[in-house]
Design a protein that fits this description.
The protein is α/β, with parallel strands linked by helices. It has three domains: about 110 residues, no CATH class; about 120 residues, Rossmann fold (3-Layer(aba) Sandwich), CATH 3.40.50; about 180 residues, no CATH class. The strands form three sheets. It has a seven-stranded mixed β-sheet with strand order 3-2-1-4-5-7-6. Strand 6 and strand 7 form a beta hairpin.
């Protein structure tokens, strides 16, 4: 995301020392205390109980249960909490037995629920007394936006203090709060007023113009919620994943870049997976490299500069499939006569992509992510296709969501960009696993990559 959008917020980010800034740490600390107490209450398990508690804590983080919701209601997340507490029991049963294992799970669930209820009750009391309030911004000035601001003012127990509106038009109904700026000024308004929550409620501008602004704000420690269209109708989403203001449901947006724990897990999986695949496929790779070398006309490996995360460049490795290509960095289409017979087969089966496992091991790439493009075309597409550059928010991959949906080679770049950004916004370890299975299950190639 561009530095110009974030620059006004950097100083504020360093100065955020108010007590309300500590709110995101309350639930994690409460869960740690609760799990520790549950382990101490369980006799005879010791290390097994400690390992179980650590696993539950990791799963709570991965499931997003440490996000402090606006509606302080523990019951909505109870089914998810029970599921998270029960899952590690599968690995614990062979060591502790069914009886002690079930007792440990039950005690953890009871203690977690009790601790969370205590935290939420204490927060509501503190908020009613005017403590630990978070400055909140409403994006939009329509009737629903005005009602959202009024609900926040009428319910101080929610802990959100509305500072004003951001939109390109005045409020449609009388409101006691000012319009602090237009959507293009959103980062500056956040910095000036120390905003910690944003509620997006049908602003006047186009969504296509609002998306890059919200993506910029999501790099900051600011929670963003969106009022869905047709919110009067019930959505097919579990209540534990939603938030609400009275009768108005809110959909929380994921933080850009995701959690550090998630990214660390992805990087670890990349290294372990690439190393295992290289060991398993070493005979195939060596045989193909020898065949390419014996085919003559150059070395076995082809190296090319590609753009990856953050707009940085890397040297991509492939098995050589072309001969005497006049413009490998600026020419899009590869003609049949510019490839060898073996090279055409390698490109058809995508086996020429196998050396990129070394790129994954070196940290240049990920196993799954947007396919990297050559600098000439990356700059060109960034000028022609809206939000194309946003796909560089994540490390490039050997395969990706666009590729398993058939968009590789000479296909629509705009649609590929949209699918790449969809992957980044909805990334999860499970999604990576699905993409890898679909890639391995493709009949034409064990590793499906973009064709350049």
């Amino acid at each position: 995301m561009t530095t110009s959008l974030l620059a006004p917020c950097l100083g504020w980010r360093l100065r955020r020392l108010a007590p309300a800034a500590l709110l995101p740490a309350i639930l994690p600390l409460a869960d740690v205390a609760g799990l520790t107490a549950a382990c101490l209450m369980t006799t005879g398990l010791r290390w097994g109980a400690s390992a179980y508690a650590c696993a539950v804590l990791v799963l709570l983080v991965a499931d997003g249960q440490h996000r402090l919701r606006i509606c302080r209601r523990v019951a909505d997340q109870l089914p998810r909490t029970v599921a998270v507490a029960a899952l590690p029991l599968v690995g614990l049963l062979p060591w502790v037995g069914a009886g002690p294992g079930l007792a440990l799970v039950l005690s953890c669930v009871v203690v977690l629920v009790a601790v969370r209820m205590g935290v939420c009750t204490a927060l509501r009391v503190a908020h009613r007394r005017g403590r630990w309030h978070e400055p909140t911004l409403v994006v939009g000035t329509g009737a629903t936006a005005v009602r959202v601001a009024q609900l926040l003012r009428d319910h101080p127990e929610l802990g959100l203090t509305p500072q004003g509106f951001v939109d390109s038009r005045p409020p449609s109904e009388p409101a006691d709060l000012p319009v602090l700026g237009e959507p293009a000024e959103l980062p500056g308004v956040i910095a000036q007023h120390g905003i910690q929550r944003i509620i997006v409620c049908f602003p006047a501008g186009r969504d296509v113009d609002l998306v890059p602004l919200l993506r910029a704000c999501r790099e900051l420690p600011v929670d963003v919620c969106v009022v869905p269209r047709l919110f009067e109708l019930g959505a097919a989403l579990p209540r534990g994943y939603l938030d609400e203001l009275g009768d108005i449901p809110l959909i929380p947006l994921r933080r850009l870049g995701h959690s550090r724990l998630g990214m660390a897990a992805k990087a670890t999986f990349d290294v372990v997976g690439a190393a295992a695949l290289l060991v398993a496929l070493a005979p195939v790779l060596l045989t193909l490299a020898l065949a390419v070398r014996l085919d003559g006309r150059g070395p076995a490996l082809f190296r090319q500069t590609r753009v990856t995360q953050g707009g940085k460049t890397m040297e991509l490795l492939k098995l050589r499939s072309m001969v005497d290509h006049p413009d490998p960095d600026t020419r899009w289409v590869v003609l049949p006569e510019q490839t060898t017979r073996l090279g055409r087969w390698l490109r058809t089966t995508h086996l020429d992509e196998l050396p990129q496992l070394f790129n994954v091991l070196r940290g240049d790439m990920s196993l799954v992510g947007p396919r990297p493009e050559r600098p000439y075309f990356a700059a060109r597409f960034a000028q022609q296709i809206p939000r194309y550059a946003d796909r560089h928010r994540m490390r490039s991959g050997l395969t990706g969501w666009a590729q398993v949906n058939g968009l590789h080679g000479d296909t629509c770049i705009a649609q590929r960009s949209r699918l790449d950004n969809f992957y980044i916004e909805h990334w999860s370890p499970w999604m990576d696993a699905v993409i890898l299975v679909r890639t391995l299950g493709t009949t034409t190639t064990p590793f499906l990559g973009g064709r350049k």
